[in-house]
Amino acid sequence: MRSRILPLAALAVLFFSLHASPLQAQDLNLANQYFNNGEYEKAAALYSQLLERDERNDIFFARYVDCLINLERYDECEKAIKKQLRKTPDNVALYVTYGDLYERMEKPDEAKAQYQRAIEKMAPDYASVNKLASLFMSRSKYDWATQTYERGSQLLKDPNRFAFNLGELYRRKGDPAKMIEHYLNAVSADPGRIPSVQTLLARYLAPSDFTELQTQLYARIQESDNPDYVELLAWSFVQRKDFKSALRQYKALDKRYDENGQRIFNLAGDAADAKDYDTAISAYDYLVAEKGRLNPFFFDAKREAMECRRKKVTEGYNYTQEDLKMLETEYESFLDQFG
Fold first, then answer.
1. What is the torsional sign of CA 182, 184, 185, 189?
2. Do 285 and 230 belong to one domain?
3. What is the DSSP string of 211-272?
4. Domain-located, residue 223
5. Which of 158, 44, 140, 315 is nearest to 149 (CA)?
6. Which of 37, 147, 258, 323 gives the lowest tally of CB atoms within 10 Å of its CB?
7. Residues 293-338: tens digit of each pLDDT
8. Lowest mean pLDDT: which of 22-36, 67-81, 216-230, 277-291?
9. Burial zone of 331 (CB within 10 Å; 0-12 exposed, 13-18 middle, 19+ buried)
10. Are 159 and 188 in contact (CB under 8 A)?
11. In terms of domains, do 222 and 279 share one?
12. One domain for residues 325 and 265
């Protein structure tokens, strides 16, 4: 079992080298070299010596424990952990290490008890919660990391404090429904997360999962007057190329907040690119009718609406002379009015 804290160990080497004597730094470099080469007996001896000089160094201790576990010196390892716990009983990382040892000894119940103890003894502050959850995640113990964040939310009396973190965990666990739930909780707590949540949902949701996203959004819209949910719902329709449904949501937002129509103008362009000319025309016509000539999108919307009507007729290869005549009349009217 190789160490799972290599990045932390590398940082410890750098920090220790800057502050230790040349001899101490040399011992540390040699210990790490032995460890990386799988020479655990030699590495354990050097880490033990380093701990005598700095007995509260978590990185040295974790490496020492890794050596003993790889050497299957379990009794000696357990004694070392208990000794360290007597010195620093509130160091929750030690309980995780103790649980790892029990897992290696094939004692799952004892391991669970230690992991649970780590969560129970966790300090009620953001940094401590994140640190313990990250420790579990580094060991791919996502269920325990989830429990850590949930306990942290209780301790901090903020149900959405770790919502984004929980969304990430459920994504890793392959639970899209719970992932969506917590990402939406994160948006509720911090609307600034909308762009990052959209990016993650677009990347990780399967096409069939968008139905779940829309179901949850509809339920929240019924319960909460939160425009961020409407925005996400419209965005979800765009991802599925359902521009007509997206337009309906964007119109609601536009009217509610008396916006300048940019959302709708952009949606019309996307619909036109996807050859959904009916929705594009409807969006452009809405801007022309509702926003008036002083709106910055008025002229472009009117011109693009005519272009979409032309493409709808000509690209369909199913048009009459009368259709062409109507298009011609519309173009002439536009030129007469706006030059």
1. positive
2. no
3. HHHHHHHHHHHHH---HHHHHHHHHHHHHTT-HHHHHHHHHHHHHHHT--SHHHHHHHHHHH
4. yes
5. 158
6. 258
7. 999 999 999 999 989 988 888 887 566 767 667 777 776 666 656 6
8. 22-36
9. middle
10. no
11. no
12. yes
- What is the rounded distance in angstroms from the CA atom of residue 21 to the CA atom of residue 16? 9
- d(Cα 183, Cα 85) in Å, to the nearest integer? 37
Select from 263, 245, 184, 247 the least CA-distant residue to 216: 184
Residue range of the domain that includes 230: 159-240
3-state secondary structure of 168: helix
Q: Is residue 318 part of a domain?
A: yes
| CB 28, CB 91: distance < 8 Å | no
Question: How many alpha carbons lie under 13 Å from residue 317 in its C-beta half-sphere?
Answer: 0
For the chain, state the CA radius of gyration. Answer: 31
User: What is the pLDDT averaged over residues 250-261?
Assistant: 93
- The number of distinct structural domains making up the chain is 2
- As a whole number, mean pLDDT of residues 96-124 equals 97
CATH number at residue 211: 1.25.40
Length of the chain, in residues: 339
Domain C-terminal end among 208, 240, 272: 240
Separation between Cα atoms, residue 137 and residue 72, nearest integer Å: 24
The residue type of 2 is R
- pTM of the complete model: 0.83
Q: How far apart are CA 203 and CA 214, in angstroms?
A: 16
- For residues 164 and 223, state if they share a domain: yes
In a domain, 86, yes or no: no
Tokens representing residue 258 in the block? 């008396």
- The answer on 223 and 268 residing in a single domain is no
Angle separating helix axes 92-104 and 74-87, nearest 10 degrees: 170
- For residues 236 and 284, state if they share a domain: no
Which of 212, 240, 268 is the last residue before a domain boundary?
240
Shared-domain flag, residues 163 and 236: yes
Distance CA 255, CA 33 (A): 66
119-133, 206-220, 294-308, 309-323, range with the lowest pLDDT: 309-323
Is there a single domain that holds both residue 230 and residue 265?
Answer: no
